[in-house]
Design goal:
It is a single chain. The protein is 37% helix and 16% strand. The protein is of the alpha/beta class. The chain has a single domain (7-270), classed as Metal-dependent hydrolases (TIM Barrel). Strands 1-2-3-4-5-6-7 form a seven-stranded parallel β-sheet, covered by helices on one side. Helix 5 (129-145) runs parallel beside helix 6 (168-185) and helix 7 (207-215) packs across helix 8 (236-246). The longest helix has 18 residues, at 168-185. The two termini are 16 Å apart.
Length: 275
């Protein structure tokens, strides 16, 4: 049997109000997929009711911590269960997140810019799709520069805003500038396999953007963004092949907020086949 090496670095709980299944079910799927560990990264609470419909309330944060701790105990000796968080970035939220991240030891902090959230759209969307796309990448770069995050999640998610208006060549100079800024911070970026379920059915980021990240030496963390147990570790084999094609030799994950790496060839061998 292969030696487990990888982590599911992006998954959710029912506290976000749009995920299903108990954490123990996610953990069991991680074992079945041949993973070494699973890091829960549920959507963080935000101030002033911002995006309250799709995340835990501030008073539920302790419940979230207890839920993950319960799962850690249930799988002790079988699977490394970790507590992380997916924290939204928008200008001005930094003090809230600094305090939140300091409340308990976190193993992995994901940064996200969620263009589709009504509160975010109301604040930043002017009706010009291209301007909104450009702002997305500006905010992505700003999020890396805050020092709050280990990894930036699904980094070209904005292509699903209006697929008919997504022209990679048109936006590529803005992406390049954002990636230059992100590379300077040392923050990792995610290859998110759930992109296959989106309007633009390809992983986030696209192969071309992934190659641009590789050229700049930006580390990549693999995550399935699981909102149901069945999606834990899904697409990892394909994602690893995609990483290799983009020029990467290794894949990363975070434990206790320290980046660790595994050679891609070893990572592939460690997985239980999805077929």
């Amino acid at each position: 049997m292969p030696t487990p090496l990888l982590y599911e670095s992006h998954c959710h709980t029912t506290l976000c109000k749009h995920a299903f299944g108990e954490p123990e079910e996610y953990a069991r799927m991680a074992l079945a997929r041949g993973l070494k560990g699973i890091t829960f990264t549920c959507h963080c609470p935000l101030p002033d009711g911002f995006s309250a419909a799709v995340r835990m309330a501030p008073e539920q944060f302790d419940e979230y911590v207890a839920m993950v701790e319960r799962t850690r105990g249930a799988f002790d000796g079988e699977l490394d269960v970790r507590l992380g968080i997916e924290s939204d970035y928008y200008p001005g939220v930094e003090p809230w997140l600094e305090e939140l991240h300091a409340r308990v030891p976190l193993s992995h902090v994901l940064g996200s810019v969620h263009y589709q959230i009504p509160d975010y759209r109301a604040r930043y969307y002017s009706g010009d799709v291209l301007s909104y796309q450009k702002l997305y990448f500006e905010h992505l770069a700003e999020s890396a520069e805050t020092g709050l995050y280990d990894t930036l999640a699904h980094p070209d998610l904005i292509k699903n805003e209006d697929p008919g208006e997504w022209d990679f060549e048109r936006i590529q100079p803005d992406i390049a500038r954002a990636l230059d800024r992100i590379a300077a911070t040392g923050v990792a970026m995610e290859l998110n396999t759930s992109g296959m379920q989106k309007k633009v059915a390809e992983m986030n980021p696209s192969p071309t953007m992934l190659s641009m990240m590789c050229e700049r030496g930006i580390p990549v963390v693999l995550g399935a963004d699981a909102h149901v147990p069945e999606r834990v570790g899904e697409g990892y084999e394909t994602g690893l092949v995609m990483l290799g094609a983009a020029g990467y030799a290794e894949v990363s994950f975070f434990v206790d907020r320290v980046r660790q790496t595994v050679p891609i060839r070893d990572a592939v061998k460690s997985l239980q086949s999805e077929h």
